[in-house]
């Protein structure tokens, strides 16, 4: 099986998880309690040894195959969406390495519940939020940008009189909108979230 095919299959696996994860984050627009409640329900599905092993394995495969493809394809990139596809993939690979390391460290070293408060501690604490808001925001935009790039490459026909280029632009616009909504939810509309004391270790308190 080719590296491209392996990357595509692992990408579909991760996309399913990320869609659920982003849906969970959108719920924060209606309060942290709903976010935590939805996360606890979703964890019944994905936080078991079988599913979790598949997801983590897919992440590692995606990172390795993605970096390999990045080295091969970056010099031959021509169109705008091909560039977005390549560079968003690189950012996602770096983000996934850091994010997964943080989650596993939080669970098995710090023994924290890696829930809403674990993810939002940095987003709601100055000066850490100066880094974490763009860091998380760019990851979400990169996810949609990567999908837009794949769509542009594989879609060969118009839909509702929209060309593949226009369709991909809509996907990217949706990504920007989702990013703003999620950041609003995770920061309580920029009013800040009160972080429980056990998570102070994440922000140096």
TrEMBL record:
* Sequence intervals crossing the membrane: 7-24, 44-70, 90-110, 130-149, 170-190
SUPFAM superfamilies assigned: Fumarate reductase respiratory complex transmembrane subunits
Determine if Transmembrane helix is one of this entry's keywords: yes
Is-annotated flag, keyword Transmembrane? yes
Highest taxon, organism lineage:
Bacteria
InterPro entries per UniProt: SQR/QFR_C/D
User: What keyword terms does UniProt attach to this protein?
Assistant: Membrane, Transmembrane, Transmembrane helix
Kindly provide the name given to this protein in its UniProt entry: DUF4405 domain-containing protein
Biological source species: Flavobacterium ginsengiterrae
